[in-house]
Amino acid sequence: MKRLSVGSALLIVLAVVLATAPVEAYKMFSKSTTFKGAGTFYGPGNLPESPLFDVVIETITFASPTHMITPFFNNGGAAPNVCAQETFFKPPTGTLSDRVTRINENVNVCHWVLAGFPVLAAVVDGGVHAGEQLADLHEDGTMTMTMEFAFDLGEGRVMKLPFNATTGTLKIPPSLQTQRGQPGGIDQAGPYKTGDTITGRLGDYDNDGLIDGAVVVVGNIPLESPFFPGAPYALIRYFVTDMPAKGVLVGRLPQAK
Question: Is residue 249, in this structure, part of any structural domain at all?
Fold first, then answer.
């Protein structure tokens, strides 16, 4: 009898779960109070590591057993608003401080302080995703998650960044300056140097019968940024969900290294 890979096993289980599930949408939680906490942001550059902001993804729907969508939702300043808007803007506007870029309010992000600076980090409209958050399960047992993402430093200072997350392994990139053969780059993300790896996970690690895990992201701050231009950054975000796992465990508990 041919043995299934853990990735194939997870896909089969999810297909069965989705076929029998009494609900059409799920939620994902990543907070300081959930399993393993919200996660950690490393860098950019030689900045020390920072705890990540809380976030709850309110609506995750399955277009197929391997493809998930968080649709774009924005109703301006009307309730419900993401919790960061309640502290960043009074009254809330549904947009970033440029008053143009709309927030996907299905991704309920909270206030963040990075190296002493207040930041609103949000999934936003525009780009190839049109404001949606997309996730895909793969045969190797990993999940990828992509979206249009932005850091808002206030007063219209908005940095839009690609957000390509995985439960697999990523390498810390060199600075944009180093990539271009230019001097002055900072080739580290907090405690991690260029070439170091950081690893996510997907399974049921808290043994509650529901899927949980961690996604990792690496990238570079744009060169036009006033804040550590070109420097690499990395993050690991832990999450729990209300999706049944049915006892399937994918991978092993990883460590960033």
Answer: no
Q: Answer whether residue 78 is part of any domain.
A: yes
The tens digit of pLDDT for each residue in 129-158 reads: 999 999 999 888 899 999 999 999 888 889
Which stretches of 182-253 are DSSP H helices? Answer: none
Residue 230: exposure state from Cβ atoms within 10 A (0-12, 13-18, ≥19): buried
Residue 156 forms part of a structural domain: yes
Domain that includes residue 79, residue range = 6-244
Largest CA-CA distance found in the chain, in angstroms, rounded: 63
Output DSSP code: residue 3: P
Unique residue bearing structure tokens 């989705």: 18
Which tokens in the block code for residue 243? 């999706």
Three-state secondary structure readout of 92-143: CCCECCCCCCEECCCEEECCEEECCEEEEEEEECCCCCCCCEEEEECCCCCE
Within 13 A of 104's CA, how many CA atoms are on the CB side? 29
Is residue 250 one of the residues assigned to a domain?
no
The whole-model pTM stands at 0.86
Structurally, the chain folds into a number of domains equal to: 1
